[in-house]
């Protein structure tokens, strides 16, 4: 992640995915993790 805005965008996306997880018409969200350079969203 390069900027604070990018980091907040990804965190917001993960929060939305968590909230929608379990909906029968959407892909299942399992987890998210990050290292020093990347964020990983496991679906």
Automatic annotation (TrEMBL):
GO molecular function: ATP binding; protein kinase activity
UniProt domain Protein kinase: residue ranges: 1-43
Domain of life: Eukaryota
Gene3D superfamilies: Phosphorylase Kinase, domain 1
Name used for this protein in its record: Protein kinase domain-containing protein
């Amino acid at each position: 992640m390069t900027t604070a805005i990018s980091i907040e965008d990804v965190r917001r996306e993960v929060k939305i995915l968590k909230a929608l997880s379990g909906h029968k018409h959407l892909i299942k969200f399992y987890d998210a993790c990050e290292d020093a350079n990347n964020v990983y969203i496991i679906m």
